[in-house]
Amino acid sequence: MKIVVCDPISSKGIALLQQRPEFEVVVLPKRLPEPELLPVVADAVALLVRSETKVTRKVIEAAPKLRVVGRAGVGVDNVDIEAATQHGTVVMNTPGGNTVTTAELSFAMLLALARKVPQAHTSMAAGKWDRKLFQGTELLGKTLGILGMGRIGSEVAKRARAFGMRVIAYDPYLTEDRAKAVGAEFAASVDDVYLAADFITVHMPVTPETKRMLNAAAFAKMKPGVRIVNCARGEIIAENDLIAALESGKVGGAALDVYAVEPLPAEHPYRKQPNVVLTPHLGASTKEAQEKCGIEVAEVVTAYLLTGEVRNAVNLPYLDAKTYEQVKPYLPLGVALGKLLAQLSPASADRIYVTYGGHARELPNTDPVTRAVLQGFLASSAIKDVNNVNVRAAAASIGITVEEKKSDEPVTFNEWLHVQVFNNGQKLISAGGTFFGSPNNPRIVRLYSTPVEIPISGTLLLLNNKDRPGIVGYLGTLLGKHKVNIANMSLTRDTAGGLALTVLNLDSAPPSAVLEELQKDADISNVKVLKL
């Protein structure tokens, strides 16, 4: 498996990859422009990047084997997440590696802003001694507003409390209990932060909701002389609005490590503002952080490629190694149920309902199993290259909604996985599966609400027939005549002499002559050949 390291990462991380005999590790000596990168990734299963290399849709489409993109750092703005998901590629980052480093920089910027340290240094370096020009403000007793209370925001809150600051925090996912745990007051809305804060520090990702959220309207709600710190993402600030607020005095100062365009253009107005502290995106630039991120990205990519464990993925739910082992037996069963129902469904589906019963209710994470059902169901669709990463998006793209339920209703089997397919509110078909004896022996045991016993492999010959003497012999003779071996047979009927459902697992597909002869029999109907 070829892994391409596109940007410089820790040598320790690279060594972890190189020691695995399964991997061919290619370390690029420098960042390549897109046209030069495309042929390099043609046979890559993994790309490792920092912020320099742009993993665009074109790059992703040029790598048909690409299974994972590992970002040594938090932000994944340089990776086309939508294209990766559609391609079936997991995107992973390393959110823990630079948490403390970025929090420390944020607080250093806060202190530098409060005490005008960079401006004083520049004056001293020019041979001056202008003490009165650089009167600052204490942090003690001031209110720090934190926008975004993830790992970094929480670490900043701890440091602010140590300096005697009042901390008020807003995050759409923040709870009052979580805020209290880090010594912060809970803000029900972002306006509560704007109205109360003397300093505001940003620790949010760029989303449609956060892009340019710090704009003229936001600055108008803030205290006069408020100071802004941004070590998150430059796009969160409307730069022209901030410059206007700085020049009017509404904003007393800003400390910025990130910008809408990087590198910051030489003629950018920020460079001319006397009350602005600028650094060149140093959030993760410490020896310790780079080493942690390099090691962590190597570990998460290795675990995913070799065991299927999913950690720190931005487009796939978390799945640790222990949970993966628990759900693993259900995955082939889910795929088989999906394939079977897709081939038997009399109309297009708009809803798939997956029920977990018995011990299956105890699975800590059912999402991988539901994805397996969808993979099987969409396997014969017109959508190309469906896998567990893109399968939910693929289903949604053709109008299929998915529902899951853990049922407490009594079931006949120890483990129970049941799938129903609907169209316009009407159930089209359903099937259920379990394990016989061990998780290595999955069976489909319910079809058309009828008991069956179908191993989940090979070719199936499925038909309805009148329950008459000699039907089993007739089928065996007919198939034997055409050199088709029967691996397993499942027979069930509604009443004696009534309608029966017969399912045969075959070692090879029956020729058309078999199907033609079966369809001539007046007692046989609904003849289908299915592939599992």
Counting helices, strands and paired strands, the structural category is: alpha/beta
Beta-strand segment tally: 22
Helix content: 25-40%
> What number of domains?
4
Give the second-level CATH assignment, the architecture of the largest domain.
3-Layer(aba) Sandwich
CATH superfamily of the largest domain: NAD(P)-binding Rossmann-like Domain
The dominant shape is elongated
Task: Please describe what this structure looks like.
By secondary structure, the chain is α/β, with parallel strands linked by helices. Helix content is 33%, strand content 24%.
Descriptors:
7-stranded parallel sheet; alpha/beta; Rossmann fold; 532 residues; 22 strands
Summarize the topology:
Layout: E1 2-5, H1 11-18, E2 24-27, H2 34-40, E3 44-49, H3 57-61, E4 68-71, H4 81-87, E5 90-92, H5 99-115, H6 117-125, E6 143-147, H7 151-162, E7 166-170, H8 176-181, E8 185-186, H9 190-196, E9 199-202, H10 216-221, E10 226-230, H11 239-248, E11 251-256, E12 276-278, H12 287-307, H13 321-327, H14 330-344, E13 351-358, H15 367-378, H16 391-397, E14 401-406, E15 415-423, E16 426-435, E17 442-447, E18 450-455, E19 459-466, H17 471-481, E20 486-493, E21 499-506, H18 512-520, E22 524-531
Parallel strand pairs: 1-2, 1-3, 3-4, 4-5, 6-7, 6-9, 7-8, 9-10, 10-11, 11-12, 13-14
Antiparallel strand pairs: 13-15, 15-16, 16-17, 17-18, 19-21, 19-22, 20-21
Helix pairs in contact: 1-12, 5-7, 14-15, 15-16
